[in-house]
Design a protein that fits this description.
Length: 349
């Protein structure tokens, strides 16, 4: 971890929200109306998947993916206005919730505002056309790091959102950017707002290996830690999934947890989750409901912060589409008392 990361971050509960599919209208106002319920779960941080305008060129699905961003400094008009988001932040702060937004600095939409004026900020093919380095991510083009001018623009953008009221950043595929960029970003943001929380989506070990074989940028979890307070546990996530499905003994997963204790800094914080927007819902992955609940409790009490993905409190089995309107089926919020109890126990000394 960063040297100044508090060990208390291991007790944090984070809630992931996709505005488009959270409420009936897919707006900031829908989420604002739900803040009290979310906070009552025992949530400390409300993480918004990307809130920015979505690119239209080469988009996927009807509405496009929120990780294909056209402008880092604006909000998606589909969700509302900056004033709407500001009002939400103020209310969240009033009830003790911190707000975290997604940062997607590995790539942009094909029609990003940056493409016209700064084509040199991108990976390019032989004809000088911006391209992606991950072929299946066809709706985006990759920024090329390191680049001092690009870094200055991106860091200034982060400072702007911190001044706006944002309390934390979840950084998409953080492992694909240079370690030095994240360290500099952390230091610069702290100058305008101390105590901002940094969560890295560190990637699966196999992806790091693949990127390095292709002579592309990829840093390990141990390198990511210098700039971040928390990272994903994707380094051992495939083993966890196999244990849940009965394809690996649970003892194998426990062995990997002990391995994490030995190889990371003493104050390391992994974000533990049993589901998120890229993975199966736990009630779909686990063979039985009882096993799903047991694994949820196990991960909640594991060493690290704990993530609740919107819809988990309703025992959702379906992971919503990123590219279209695909609403969470809230039903009767049947796991609310269970998750609330886990959050309370997690915070007890």
């Amino acid at each position: 971890m960063a040297k100044d990361t508090p060990s208390s971050y291991r007790n944090l509960v984070i809630y992931e929200c996709y505005v488009r599919n959270h409420g009936p209208h897919g707006t900031f106002s829908d989420v604002e109306a739900d803040l009290e319920r979310i906070r009552a779960l025992g949530v400390d941080i409300l993480w918004f998947m990307p809130i920015h305008p979505i690119g239209k060129l080469n988009k996927k699905g009807t509405l496009g993916c929120p990780y294909s961003i056209a402008d880092y400094r604006e909000v998606n008009p589909e969700y509302g206005t900056k004033e709407d988001f500001s009002r939400l932040i103020v209310k969240a702060h009033q009830i003790g919730l911190k707000i975290m937004i997604d940062v997607v600095y590995n790539h942009t939409a094909h029609d990003s505002v940056l493409v016209k004026d700064h084509p040199d900020w991108y990976h390019q093919d032989a004809d000088g056309k911006p391209v992606t380095t991950v072929p299946e991510w066809s709706d985006v083009i990759d920024l090329k790091h390191p680049n001092p001018e690009l870094s200055a623009y991106l860091i200034e953008t982060l400072q702007g959102w911190a001044k706006f009221g944002v309390d934390g950043f979840r950084c998409d595929v953080a492992s694909l950017l240079p370690e030095e960029f994240w360290v500099a970003a952390r230091q610069a943001v702290a100058q305008v707002k101390p105590g901002v929380i940094w969560l890295a989506e560190s990637v699966h070990a196999a992806f790091v290996e693949y990127r390095r074989k292709k002579n592309l940028s990829a840093i390990s979890d141990s390198e990511v830690y210098r700039g971040f307070d928390m990272t994903y546990d994707y380094d051992i996530y495939t083993i966890w999934q196999a244990a849940v499905e009965g394809k690996q003994p649970v003892a194998r997963y426990l062995e990997m947890l002990r391995f994490q204790d030995a190889i990371y800094p003493a104050n390391f914080v992994k974000m533990r989750c049993v589901e998120n927007h890229d993975q199966k819902r736990i009630m779909d992955l686990a063979p039985t409901r009882e096993q799903g609940l047991a694994w949820t409790a196990f991960e909640a009490f594991n060493c690290g912060s704990f993530l609740i993905y919107g819809g988990q409190e309703s025992a959702e089995t379906r992971t919503p589409s990123l590219f279209d309107i695909d609403k969470v089926e809230w039903k009767d919020y049947e796991l609310t008392s269970f998750l609330t109890r886990l959050a309370k126990l997690k915070k007890e000394p």
